[in-house]
Amino acid sequence: MADQTDLIRGHRKQSLLLSDEELLEIRARQRTFEGAYWRTSIAAVSMGLLIVKVFTKAFYKIGITFFVFGLVMLGIAVLRRRTAGDVFDLSIPFQTSGNWVVLTTVVTLCTYIILLVLLLEL
Q1: Global model pTM greater than 0.85
Q2: Residue 55 lies in a domain
């Protein structure tokens, strides 16, 4: 049985043989790598559902646009996570994901253009 001094906030001290700096780097990578895309997709899907539920039928296309944008961002997050198996390997230097950033930019730009057109049609 583990002694209480071997536990830090419910986790074993030596569960990973990493220094504090390495653990901090892994947390920062995970927060950036996974958190940003997931938060964006959850916010967009929530906004889309809110618009569809609260506003009149004239705003349905805007709500659906937000909803689709959120689903696309969720897809990008899942695909990016699956294709970047070495992002948490600290022995490999970190490289930015230029292609994913370009894809996200194109999707976001298209969404903004669609939203602008839909708002001008109201």
Answers
A1: no
A2: yes
